[in-house]
Please model this.
Amino acid sequence: MNKKQLKIIIALLAVIVVLLLVAGGLVIGLFVLAPQQKTPENATISADNGEWSLDNLKVGRVTAIDSDIQYSAYIGSIEEAEAELRAYGVEQREKYDNPKVEKIEKRIEKKYGIFAVNLGEMDVETAKDVEKAVKYMYKRYPMLKGKLTNITLSNINSFKNGHIALTQYREYIVNGDFSQTPYVMKFEILLSASMFLNREELLKKCAEGAETNYWPEGMDISTLVVHELSHQVLNAYMMNYFGYEDVYYVTDDNRDGFSYYITDGLKMNQTVAKMVVDEAYNQWEKDNPGKSYEDFCKSISGYAQGIKEDGGISYSETVAEALADIYLNGKKASKASQAIENVLIGK
Model:
């Protein structure tokens, strides 16, 4: 299927998807980085038996940052859109007092063109891990530049659903009526406050995931962030594929590219993501004749299989795990991971 045919098919769904996105502030492309760990909502605590409650568990693991804000306003230019995205970071930074981490936030913003980095109450070492991941990814994959607007510590209810981090896009500033341009998008990575404010526990989860081959060997906090940034590498590849430019400022000029991009990103489509992984598998299979697609994914990690609770497959997870494998192991990374990277960067 060529690009023209793909666009025609996707266009049939695009209008409905855009309306849903604008009307409901729909989050598309949520990626769970850890298996679900459910906590009973009705857990209680008493002085007598010392049982833990959900509220007690949250102490010291909740951020003051509000990552769900949405505004309604007319934004007349891309420069105004950029200014508003930066203003969000300044506004949220006033809610916490963490001078050493603030220096890291501002350094990331300045060096890599991310409009707002809010790591909140995070300890310095963990903030440095975030910066380490960003530095590596933006150097290795320049296509990221201008595609990510925010990195934010967030209360994404990991106590209930086990999320460690999410990559998502959503409308930040809407323009009155549904789907009316121009409007401002956020392309953001959310880091779970409940996880990233407890460094020792997070490191323990990384080690446990690596021991079971759920994650690549050597998994650490910086690799968690690399994984999320890897989702954004695939997003950037898709944006380029559909000719979607100035991605955080949607106008009449780029709305078609935006519609193609968000529609193809839905799990029922995944045309471009599957195309990337299939092409990489075909390269890999030449040197591994008779090996299955499942073998291809397992050679990266257990999580790279992308198997979801509903039985579907997330090709984005396969890509993200591949780039995380390369981050950890370089030239010693699995050949499957290297094949996926080769497709993404055009080798």
Remarks:
- DSSP finds 14 helices and six strands in the chain.
- Residues 3-24 form the longest helix (22 residues).
- Residues 15-49 have pLDDT under 50 and may be disordered.
